[in-house]
Amino acid sequence: MLRATPSLCLFCEVRSVLHPKSSPWLQSRQYASKQLQRRKPARLELSRRVAEAPPKLSSRGKPIQKRTGSPFAAMNRTRVNIRESRPSPPPGSEKRRKPPGRGIERKEKRQDGDFRALKMQRALSNVSYQRRSSIKEEINHIQSFEQFPLLPVVQESISTQALKGMEDAEPTPIQRVAIPALLGTDNVGKRTRKRRDGMEQFLLAAETGSGKTLAYLLPIIDAIKHAEAREAEQAKAEEDNAKRKKEERKAGQLFELDPGEDAFDSSGRPRAIILVPTAELVAQVTTLAKALCHKIKFRVSGISSSISPTVIKSRLFAQASIDMLVSTPHLLASIADAEPRVLSRVSHLVIDEADSLFDRSFAKETTPIIDRSTPTLKQLILCSATIPRSLDNYLRTRFPDIRRLVTPNLHAIPRRVQLGVVEVDKEPYRGNKSLACADTIWTIGKSAAEHGTGPDKENVDTKRIIVFVNERDTAKEVSEYLVSKGIDAIALSRAVDNVEKQAEALADFTGAALPTTSPGPTSVPLSTKGRVARSLPNTKVLVATDLGSRGIDTTAVRHVILYDVPHTTIDFIHRLGRTGRMGRRGRGIVLVGKGDRRDVVKEVREGMFMGKALI
Ligand SMILES: Nc1ncnc2c1ncn2[C@@H]1O[C@H](COP(=O)(O)OP(=O)(O)OP(=O)(O)O)[C@@H](O)[C@H]1O
């Protein structure tokens, strides 16, 4: 009988020492063959982890942990595993996390999921659909301006001055949301009014062409008139007091210094300031405020760099007092450096087109104006058609308590605006974008010319078209090309020197009165290389860069051509927002060429078709 000692065990080798079966019955054949079967594959199969490098060991001999957050963490990976790279949540944060996929959240994820290309450049801050629906419900009951507790004179001026000729005009959604909030008569306002001490902050955000200007102007003018009445009462009481004291002094024959007249000078110290990015917008907002002041009686002035310094000085300081000032930040900041009192009585400060005025080119002028007016400020009102993510982040840190007054359709381009696409690479343009642009304008313009009835078919059903380009230099190039093709076009850009003609053309587009002395923008050189070419009557074209598009009220414009595909959805919203204003219909045409983001254009079109908010 064979006896197997532990050291001779063929199958268990070293382990055999501890093997419970290292006993004499190990010799049984059955057990030996089983062990052989088990061991066979071990000689043929490689470990699954054979390709991996052996773990790096620290000086203490322990494996070094991979740094997932390091910029080199993803090197040499063959699989994308984004989850792995996410930092683990801090302890305790699980409690605050909402249960996954509940109600609105889940639905929104699905809605967002459609914008695959736009997600890559996600530019806009999100407003939940739940919030949009609740705002809709809240403002549903407001049907007329009379429901706002405005002073009777302010109330009257709406139909007779601001919306003259518009019978039965109803407040727009942003006016329904903002006017009660700024007056402090909405539910939140009533609750907080009593414990209000410092400055109130508001963000008004609504679609383009939805009447935001009137939404902030009416409550501010109302507040100015209230303050005026209070101050008049106070002045009367002080006057009575002074009179009484004088009589007392006379009766008592007391020697006292006569305090004399109160030297409180309010010239050059406006109560309300409205900041806008361009001189064109200064003119636009001032015109509306002036229309209101005919009835309401308050003093408003607009100043911009297009006005001479002498006129600026007289507008600010020549009047006994000034109630409202409209300006650009650059100009006001330079005036405030020389004359700090200009910001010493401001109770209402509006930053219109806030997304522009808080961006890099304006922020260094806008922010100090806010800081310097803060001691007297009662309301800071920011206003914008879009809330970019950068602005959203800035507001969260700088104004965490700001009240966001948004409308249900914020960031959605209305369905009444259609977006068409012209493929520039295809026949007959063969990549010539300017030719495609001129041809598109001719197609739009021809129908206007055909419908003209006058002998020279002028001023009859004139089509106004805005062409948007991304770069300043392109604006001039494109307008010159269009003129060479017989189109009445002018560039609106800071790079263009013909300021007077620009102003005329813009006035014509915005419906403002044209100066009678000017020959009018209809006279365009219609010749190319000394030869008179055919011309397109009844069509006017403005070639503009993005800054020209901000805030300008071009209600008469039905067509917008996007010569360049806009960089972000923000630009899409502002540019297409020059048409389809205040419930009108409009048409946008985008020229798509080689290298342009077709997927982005497609998604914007789909979003517009479905009336969805862009992201
Ligand atoms: N309640 C209303 N009913 C009818 N029209 C109105 C009403 N309120 C304002 N409007 C008109 O709507 C037009 C657009 O107004 P406004 O320029 O204030 O729009 P906006 O929202 O500031 O646009 P943007 O975002 O482009 O600056 C103006 O011509 C204005 O007279």
UniProtKB/TrEMBL annotation:
Gene3D superfamilies attached to this UniProt entry: P-loop containing nucleotide triphosphate hydrolases (3.40.50.300)
Catalytic activity entry: ATP + H2O = ADP + phosphate + H(+)
GO MF: ATP binding; hydrolase activity; RNA binding; RNA helicase activity
Top-rank taxon, per record: Eukaryota
InterPro entries linked to this entry: DEAD/DEAH_box_helicase_dom, Helicase_ATP-bd, Helicase_C-like, P-loop_NTPase
Helicase C-terminal domain mapped to chain residues: 454-615
Region Disordered, annotated ranges: 32-115, 232-260
Biased composition (Basic and acidic residues): 42-51, 103-115, 232-242
Domain Helicase ATP-binding: 193-405
Parts of the chain that traverse the membrane: none
Keyword field: ATP-binding, Helicase, Hydrolase, Nucleotide-binding, RNA-binding
EC number: 3.6.4.13
Protein known as: RNA helicase
